[in-house]
Amino acid sequence: MRLIWPCIALLALAACGPAANVAPPPTPPRVSQAALDLRRDAAALLARPELDVPRVTVQHCLIAVRNRGPFGDKPALSHLEAEEKAAQLLAQARQGSAEDFRLLILRNTYDHIFSESEPGVLHLVRPEDPAAPPHTRPKLDQDKGEFYRDQMTRWFHMAAWRLEVGEIGVIEKSAEDSPYGFHIIKRLK
């Protein structure tokens, strides 16, 4: 008797035919091979050991996701759009000259830390005592792009200390470790 009621319910549902007005599940957006390569390159960079140097100078281009910053002339990008754009720019950066990289930044960065003569250049310093409270450290000239490494997002400073001089790398957007977007980073010194 217990099995009859579920069977009757199933027969009744089957008799109604296919469900009306039910949309098929959405298809996930297609990811390009360039974006998959970007993800692989970003993971490989962060997996490398950190270089033992007290300071690094990097130049970077930020491709922001859902830009709300001061660059109102740039379009607000979804995560996938920003990833695709970063993948395209990474390929261009790796093929071009230092001047090409400077122009790439001038035309594409969403970052507000900006100098037209040295766009996207940051001088990062490892604190002598990383455990010391930030207010006890010597002041750096942020107007000249000087920052302690822990003032940058986690993946940004990790990447900066893993790149060789002249090398270009990339980090992905991550809610916790790189919340602003995708960074294309070149180590200068």
What would you note in describing this structure?
There is one protein chain. This protein has 189 residues and is α+β, with helices and mostly antiparallel strands. The chain has a single domain (52-187), classed as Chitinase A, domain 3 (Roll), CATH 3.10.50.40. The protein has 5 helices and 5 strands; from the N terminus they run H-H-E-H-H-E-E-H-E-E. The chain has helices spanning 4-15, 33-47, 79-95, 98-108, 154-160, and strands spanning 55-64, 121-125, 146-148, 168-171, 181-187. Strands 3-2-1-5-4 form a 5-stranded mixed sheet, with helices on both faces. Helix 2 crosses helix 3. The longest helix has 17 residues, at 79-95. The radius of gyration is 24 Å and the shape is globular. The termini are far apart. The mean pLDDT is 82.
Distance between the termini: 80 Å
If you average the pLDDT, what whole number results?
Answer: 82
Overall structural domain count:
1
CATH class: Alpha Beta
Structural Rg: 24 Å
The chain-level structural class is alpha+beta
String of helices and strands: HHEHHEEHEE
Strand order of the largest sheet: 3-2-1-5-4
Number of helices: 5
Give the percentage of residues in beta strands. Answer: 15-25%
Looking at the overall shape, the CATH architecture is Roll
Q: Which spans of ≥5 residues are poorly predicted at pLDDT below 50?
A: none
Sheet with the most strands, sense and barrel status: 5 strands, mixed
- What is the number of E strands? 5
CATH fold description: Chitinase A, domain 3
| Percent in helix | 25-40%
The rough form would be described as globular
